[in-house]
């Protein structure tokens, strides 16, 4: 009897363990990403990825947390080697210098007669700080770094200078451009290269802190363009004119664009669609496909306004931190935020946005670099992979399957690499001793984001029209021999991004299972792919991101 009871118990335990084993198996689903490669639906700049440097002093605090440290344009350690290498890795990176306090900055040029006083905390002042100052020796130091790092600089000018703030919150009067003009002349005199001058920060529509009417802003933008044309008369290329650097308001932007059609090069808007950084539901928003889809309305509306206007200006996202008031620690500077960030890059591109500036490169709780250590946060590596893999031409992309997959495709980024080869004796004798061979990266790159927490998705790729697809040209094996370890043209490159230990709040990112971190010299690590046969599905693990470069299929839009 005892042995029977023992056997019954053993059977019960085996049943329980088998149930646990089956139920704990990772779920697997499938889907198809459809790509229309006949023509591009948008085109981004080569240096689409952009980031900001801000003015906030250490005393800037939100919800009892002071997250800015020494990350301001005025106190950032410009000699930090990680900072230099992190900028250089993009070759080039656009850096937008500006933010909330830019309209309260005085430039201490030789023409300025005011004392150069730093920002001071004062609750009665707009934005909680007094007027600040940019010393010219600091401007010199900044430009030394930018030149060394190869950055392309967009500088936000003090658009409130000379205006008066009314009781209704509006700023009235024309912009007094004398201080800005003095800075521009100083900059040209020093032979510093500025990619663009941007007028103001968040003064459009209802504004933040205060606002300026669209017709007056247009007049001020025309004045800025005239000043730049005069000062840069003998210099080419001239900096571009950028405005308004504020939140999208359809009526305001429409009027502004119509009145600056011959003066404006770039129209910029800001995005903080996740709400305040103190929100405890940020992660739920980030992994909700419906919530992410909501921002498409802004991109679509601005795109339509630009197309219907007589302007030649193009659209940029001039600042985007997702959650305002400095973000949220271990969310907007952690792995989970790459879901939002990369989805934003993909969505913006599909509406012909040319450049996307992330708030911030360093500073607050949403920096690409850690404010204290300068160590890259996960979004830095996401941005760098985008920059290296996603080319100019944007392809129309849709996904059939779970709604938890976000899919975007671009023609591959054109880059040249060198591969050692050995020529046959016949070729050698007829031509020359060639030991390096240049290959232009071709095909297309697919970005896949899996917002599901438990299901791996096996993704197949299909084209809406396959009649005109071209296979990449293959070289005759008689003439060249690929080096050992070089992958077949039928292979695709895959870059799988996951969080350390599967923790979405982790600030450590894994690429193909390996931790990404700088070395003791502050060098950015290599971003090396895995290889898979292009005919096999792409496996996208739960809560992961995959870039897949497929070189052997070249859609018409990518030729």
Q: Could you explain how this protein is built, in words?
A:
By secondary structure, this protein is α/β, with parallel strands linked by helices. Helix 6 packs parallel to helix 9. Residues 3-24, 416-439 and 473-486 have low confidence and may be disordered.
* Rg: 26 Å
Find the structural class using helix and strand composition. Answer: alpha/beta
Helix content: 10-25%
What percentage of the residues does DSSP assign to strands (E)?
Answer: 25-35%
- Rounded mean pLDDT is 90
- The number of helical elements comes to 12
Give the N-terminus to C-terminus distance in angstroms.
Answer: 79 Å
Instruction: Assign an overall shape.
Output: globular
Count of individual beta strands: 32
**What can be said about the biggest beta sheet?**
12 strands, mixed
The unreliable regions are 3-24, 416-439, 473-486
Subcellular location: Lysosome membrane; Secreted
Keywords: Glycoprotein, Hydrolase, Lysosome, Membrane, Secreted, Signal
Signal peptide: 1-18
Main location: membrane
